[in-house]
C-alpha cells in the first residue's frame, strides 16, 4: 500500500512539474486525434442517417448525423428483391471458401520460396513479381477463363486469384524472420516439409495469415466485376455486390430523382431515390466487414508490422 501511495504521489508531482510545452503538445494531440476521429466517422454516420431517412425528405439535403424523418423503406425495398438472399449466400460462400483456399495456398508457396535450400526460389519469386507489373489484359484473361471451362461456374471466383503476389511477399517476409532452429528441430525429429509447414510454420504465422485473410475477405466480399464478366447470365451464381450494383443502376436510369417502385411480392408502393438506395447499399455491403474487423485487428497490426520489416 505504501508503495502504491508513493507511486501515486510521484505521478501527481510529475504532472505538476510537466513543462508548458508538454501540456500544449498533449492538448494539441488530443484535439488532432478528436478531429481525425470525427473526419473518419462522419461519412459513415451520415450515410447511415441517409439510409434510415425517408427518401422524399433525403433529396432536400441537410441530413447530417441523425435521420430527419425516420423510415425503413429503403432497406425494405433492397431486401424485397427476389434475388438478394441467394446472392447473399453466394457472397458468403465465396468469401469464406475463397479466403481459406487463398490463405492456405499462398502460405504454402510462401514457405517454399522462403527456404534457402530451394535453388530456384529467386527465379520463382521474380516470376511472381513480374505478374504484378505485366498483365495480359481483359480479353486474354476472358479467353483463358473460357478455355478453362470456368464460365458460369462458382470456381471462377476462387481459382483465378488463388495466389496473390502481394500476399505472397508479406507471408514470405514473415516466415523468413522465424527462428531457423525451430524448423531444424522439426527436421531432426523426422518431419518432412509438409508436416513442418502444417505443425510448425503455419501456427507461428497466424498474425500474418489473419492479415492476408482480411485483405482477401474484403476483396472477395466487394468484388462484382468478375460476376458481370463470367456469370452475369446465371442468376443462381450472382453475388450480393452485383445485385446491389444492378439495383443502383436501375435507380440511376430513372427519369426523376424520386421514383415509386412497385414491390413485386406484395404490390405495395415504396418511395425510394438513387441517393437513398446508394446509402442503403453502402451500409448493407459494409456492415459484415465492420463486424469481422475487430476480431482480426490485433493480428492485422502485428502481421503488417512484423511482415513488412524485410522485403
Automatic annotation (TrEMBL):
InterPro entries per the UniProt record, alphabetical: MetI-like, MetI-like_sf
Cellular location(s): Cell membrane
Parts of the chain that traverse the membrane: 24-45, 84-111, 123-142, 154-175, 196-221, 275-296
Primary location class: membrane
Coiled coil (residue ranges): none
Domain ABC transmembrane type-1 stretches: 88-296
UniProt-listed GO biological process terms: transmembrane transport
PANTHER family in the record: ABC TRANSPORTER PERMEASE PROTEIN MG189-RELATED-RELATED, POLYGALACTURONAN_RHAMNOGALACTURONAN TRANSPORT SYSTEM PERMEASE PROTEIN YTCP
Family recorded in the similarity comment: Belongs to the binding-protein-dependent transport system permease family.
Protein name: Carbohydrate ABC transporter permease
Species the sequence originates in: Cohnella ginsengisoli
Amino acid at each position: 500500500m505504501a508503495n502504491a501511495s508513493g507511486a501515486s504521489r510521484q505521478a501527481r508531482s510529475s504532472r505538476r512539474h510537466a513543462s508548458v510545452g508538454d501540456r500544449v503538445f498533449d492538448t494539441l494531440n488530443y484535439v488532432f486525434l478528436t478531429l481525425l476521429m470525427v473526419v473518419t466517422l462522419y461519412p459513415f454516420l451520415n450515410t447511415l442517417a441517409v439510409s434510415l431517412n425517408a427518401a422524399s425528405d433525403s433529396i432536400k439535403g441537410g441530413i447530417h448525423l441523425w435521420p430527419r424523418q425516420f423510415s425503413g423503406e429503403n432497406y425494405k425495398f433492397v431486401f424485397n428483391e427476389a434475388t438478394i438472399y441467394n446472392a447473399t449466400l453466394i457472397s458468403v460462400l465465396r468469401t469464406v471458401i475463397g479466403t481459406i483456399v487463398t490463405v492456405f495456398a499462398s502460405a504454402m508457396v510462401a514457405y517454399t520460396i522462403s527456404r534457402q535450400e530451394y535453388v530456384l526460389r529467386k527465379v520463382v519469386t521474380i516470376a511472381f513479381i513480374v505478374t504484378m507489373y505485366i498483365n495480359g489484359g481483359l480479353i486474354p484473361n476472358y479467353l483463358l477463363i473460357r478455355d478453362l471451362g470456368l464460365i458460369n461456374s462458382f470456381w471462377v471466383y476462387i481459382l483465378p486469384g488463388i495466389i496473390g503476389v502481394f500476399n505472397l511477399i508479406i507471408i514470405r517476409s514473415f516466415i523468413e524472420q522465424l527462428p531457423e532452429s525451430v524448423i531444424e528441430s522439426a527436421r531432426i525429429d523426422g518431419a518432412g516439409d509438409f508436416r513442418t509447414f502444417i505443425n510448425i510454420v503455419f501456427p507461428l504465422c497466424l498474425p500474418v495469415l489473419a492479415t492476408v485473410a482480411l485483405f482477401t475477405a474484403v476483396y472477395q466480399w466487394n468484388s462484382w466485376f468478375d460476376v458481370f464478366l463470367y456469370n452475369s447470365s446465371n442468376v443462381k451464381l450472382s453475388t450480393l455486390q452485383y445485385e446491389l450494383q444492378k439495383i443502383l443502376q436501375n435507380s440511376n436510369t430513372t427519369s426523376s430523382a424520386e421514383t415509386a417502385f412497385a414491390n413485386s411480392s406484395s404490390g405495395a408502393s415504396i418511395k425510394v431515390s438513387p441517393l437513398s438506395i446508394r446509402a442503403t447499399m453502402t451500409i448493407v455491403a459494409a456492415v459484415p466487414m465492420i463486424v469481422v474487423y475487430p476480431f482480426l485487428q490485433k493480428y492485422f497490426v502485428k502481421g503488417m508490422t512484423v511482415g513488412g520489416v524485410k522485403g
